[in-house]
Write a structure and sequence with these properties.
The protein has 284 residues and is an alpha/beta fold. It folds into two domains: 177 residues, D-Maltodextrin-Binding Protein, domain 2 (3-Layer(aba) Sandwich); 96 residues, D-Maltodextrin-Binding Protein, domain 2 (3-Layer(aba) Sandwich). 39% of the residues lie in helices and 20% in strands. It is built from twelve helices and ten strands. It has a five-stranded mixed β-sheet with strand order 2-1-3-10-4. Helix 1 packs across helix 8 and helix 3 packs across helix 11. The radius of gyration is 18 Å and the shape is globular.
Length: 284
């Protein structure tokens, strides 16, 4: 390819295999220039980037890409990336009067943006707890730093974000974690715009082959726990727990997992229109 392939992802420990592959020149050796963009705003922002053609690929939350495609984003799931659930920590400010999850019914959730994982999972969590969905309130905060400000100022009451990413804030007492809500599906997929998958299927296959080598061998890298702890300012025990819980995938996501996402988001009235697995999955 003459032009760089643009890929977006969150600046979190899940994506270290990508950075190692880029740093070691694995894509360049195949004649691919991969241009990575960190997107701290998360899935809602990346869905918008896929929709507007600002990126070719994104490592994105499964529920986020399903909702985006239902709203008309011309994208496909190229492959599952993380097969294990995402553990969404439910956080309140360090000095918050809320002591347990049940205290949060009817309060305001901080979300990075509408259509983001923090937005969708607030509904999934409320559904699990049997809370009235119409009572959910939202405050858009864009980033983790925005959530810190909003919770500290009392502009929002709780914030759902990946448990291990927020651990340093919990350790410092900025946040208090009152609960954890796992996704009821594999959490991250690699999404492609339809145009990129149609015009460059060979390049897409090469990219998936390369990242699959790195993700398959990732846990066996000597001292990878220390590398992660240092690179993402995490305590070693937390990183070791996260590594033990996280499973990278080298296969396309199974239809049943996608159907579960569609079913729950549809039940929660979060889909613009009901989509099918055939509309969502790349078949090279």
């Amino acid at each position: 390819m003459d032009n760089p392939v643009r890929i977006a992802g969150v600046p979190e420990h899940f994506n270290l295999p990508w950075h190692l592959a880029i740093e070691e020149g694995a894509f360049v050796k195949r004649g691919i220039e991969l241009d990575w963009t960190d997107v701290p705003e998360g899935t809602g922002k990346m869905a918008g980037m896929l929709d507007s053609g600002q990126t070719d690929l994104a490592v994105i939350l499964t529920e986020g890409i399903v909702r985006a495609v239902s709203a008309g984003t011309p994208a496909l799931i190229a492959q599952e990336y993380i097969a294990s659930p995402l553990l969404w920590g439910i956080h309140v400010a360090g000095g918050s009067p809320y002591k347990q999850v049940s205290d949060l019914e009817g309060t305001t959730a901080a979300i990075s943006r509408y259509g983001s994982g923090s937005h969708l999972m607030a509904f999934v969590h409320a559904r699990e707890k049997g809370w009235p969905l119409e009572a959910l309130g939202f405050e858009v905060v864009h980033t983790l730093e925005g959530a810190v400000e909003a919770l500290s100022a009392g502009e929002a009451d709780y914030f759902m974000w990946e448990k291990f990413t927020t651990q340093p804030l919990v350790d410092r007492g900025v946040f208090r974690r009152v609960g954890v809500c796992p996704t009821p599906w594999p959490c991250f997929v690699i999404a492609s715009t339809k145009a990129f998958a149609r015009e460059h299927p060979g390049v897409l296959k090469d990219i998936l082959e390369i990242i699959n080598v790195y993700s398959r061998e990732f846990k066996q890298i000597p001292s990878i726990d220390r590398t992660l702890a240092n690179r993402y300012q995490q305590e070693l025990p937390a990183i070791r727990e996260w590594l033990a819980l996280t499973r990278w995938s080298q296969n396309q996501i199974v239809d049943e997992s996608v159907e579960n996402v569609i079913s729950i988001l549809n039940e929660l009235k979060l889909l613009s229109k009901k989509v099918t697995t055939a509309e969502l999955l790349w078949k090279p």
